[in-house]
Amino acid sequence: GEIRYEGQPTSFDELRGEMRRIHARNPETMVLIQADRRSRHGKVVQVMDLAKSIGFERIGIAIETSPEPRD
């Protein structure tokens, strides 16, 4: 799975740096992790753990789902 920040591909290390900068400016910021159906569970957990280790307390996950089939 690919990690993106603000729609752009990024490395885990770059994401860590950006999260640290954001947390320094506003520790109350909510981290929202968006995952599509192809996202690996482990990658999502890795990003959650990163956010927690930096000190974020408000972390959410948004999962992309398939539309329900219509009859």
Helix content bin: 25-40%
Order of helices and strands: EEHEHE
Report the principal-axis shape.
elongated
Radius of gyration: 14 Å
> Unreliable runs, pLDDT <50, ≥5 residues?
none
Number of helices: 2
Query: For the report, how would you describe the main beta sheet?
Result: 2 strands, antiparallel
Structural class: alpha+beta
Report the β-strand fraction as a percent range.
15-25%
**How many strands in all?**
4
Largest beta sheet: strand ordering: 1-2
Distance between the terminal alpha carbons, to the nearest Å? 33 Å
- Oligomeric state of shown chains: single chain
Mean pLDDT: 90
Polypeptide structure, described:
By secondary structure, the protein is α+β, with helices and mostly antiparallel strands. The protein is 39% helix and 20% strand. The chain has 2 helices and 4 strands; from the N terminus they run E-E-H-E-H-E. Strands 1-2 form a two-stranded antiparallel sheet. Strands 3-4 form a two-stranded parallel sheet. The longest helix is centred in the first third of the chain and has 14 residues, at 12-25. The protein is elongated.
List the helices and strands and how they pair.
Blueprint: E1 4-5, E2 8-9, H1 12-25, E3 31-35, H2 41-54, E4 59-63
Parallel strand pairs: 3-4
Antiparallel strand pairs: 1-2
Helix pairs in contact: 1-2
Condensed summary:
The protein is an alpha+beta fold and 71 residues long. It is built from two helices and four strands, in the order ββαβαβ.
